[in-house]
Each structure stands twice: as structure tokens, then as C-alpha cells.
Amino acid sequence: MTEENNYAPLKGIKVVDWTQVQSGPSCTQLLAWLGADVIKIERTNTGDPTRNELLDIQDSWSLYYLQLNANKKSLTLNIKTDEGKKIMYDLIKKADVFVENIAPGSAERNGFGWKKLHAMNPKLIYASLKGFNEGSRFEDVKAFEPVAQSAGGGASATSWNEGKANVPTQSTALGDSNSGMHLTIGILAALLQREHTGEGAFVYQSMQDAVLNLCRIKLSVGLTRLKVGKLILTLMFTSLFKTATRAGQQLPTPWVTQNGLLILALMAGKTANYTRKKFIH
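That's the Formyl-CoA transferase sequence above. Prediction below.
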């Protein structure tokens, strides 16, 4: 591969990354992979909380932190001091993108809200990731993975029924990394729009909406309660079974019946040997 056709699509794009934990860093991680120059702003003394999480190897870097922050530069700043603010403002004046996912209202209180930064750098793409939409009654509520999954319906799609209640089983990062991916798409669209308008833009993504987007089929059919854990009906296969002819064949989609789940299968011309009763789950 020549240098000419190995050109990173976001080469030359400067990103100030004021995010932490997983949702925001997963967004800026994607931008870094696409070639952007990402400077991660971390608090003094402690840095990003994930630096001290999942320390699998003693006296080594956190794999959790590295997975979300590789390809980035890191700068520790105390943005509550005049010196820290000045350094941050100087970076933002030269940046193409500013990304934040700190507590609701905190950016504005510290002098880094959209209106102020837009006046400072009219071409800046300001990207904000929060738990809930602006104007929502939960607008000021902090959110992490379990909250986002519960508010967006993801928890009900990966749960077990225990009596009258569903017990969520958190698996993939539907709230965190999925939200970051949605925000990345918005940033890319805003960068393209800037090519035509010459102006920056405000991009906002809520974690709740990102989870809702992945649950749209489930929600559209009005499915509110599942009989089986970790099973999204009409979308997912049940299990893999080894057979005499073909190993690892997937069972087709289960159908909801009055008495439970009915699984239909074609068994190489031997369907007459199977009765309806045997298919009841």
C-alpha cells in the first residue's frame, strides 16, 4: 500500500477530548483511529477513573484505559485555575472538534459551554454526550451504563424473569460504547457540513436515545416482557447445536405462542416425525 492511498480520512483534524470513563472516550477513540489528532484532558492527581480500573497485571497500565485511549495524547489540567483555563482555551481556539461528557451543567459552570466556545472559535464542532436529552425531566441526571440500558429499554431485552420482575443482565456496552459511536457519526456529519457552511455546529447525543435506537424493533412490536433471558424475539437465534450432518447449525427464529415459544425446524425431509407438542419450549 502506497502512502498516497493510505491517507487517514481525519488527518489534520484536531480534537480536544474532555471525556472520561467509556462513553465519551469510545467516541474520541474512533476519531483517533480515523487519523484525528486527539488531546485528552485529564484531571490532575487522578486522571481518568479508568486508569485505576481492571488492573489485571500488577504495576502495569490498566487495559480498560488503554483500550479506550490508545492513539491519543494526554494532558493533565486543573481547569478550575486561571492557568488551566487559559491552556484549555488556547487548545480550543486551534481545534476542529471539542468533545465532552462530564456531568450535566459542569461545562457551562466552568466556562466551557457551547455559546462561549462558539464565540471563541466559530468553526468549532462542539460535541456533548449526556444521559438524557435536553429538555427531558432527567436532563440533569448523571448516567452510566446500567442507567442508560434501563432508560433506553436495553435491560429488558437482556434479562431473566424472576417472578413478577425482570432481572437485568448487563452484557455488551449498549449504553456506553454504543452512545460514543452515535456521537462519532454526528461529529463526522458536522465536519462534512462545515465544508459547505464554513461554520461550526453543536452536536448532542443522549445515552438513552442511543440505546432506544438499538431497541427499535423490540419497541415497535410492543414487546414489553420476555419469557427467556438474553433473547430478543424475531432477531436472535437461540443456540448452536452439533448435528450429525452439519455442525453448529442455528435454530431459526422462535415464535411466540399462547403457551410459550414454538420453534419450527426443517429436518432434512423428516418433518413428519416431529409433532407440534415436541416443539413447545
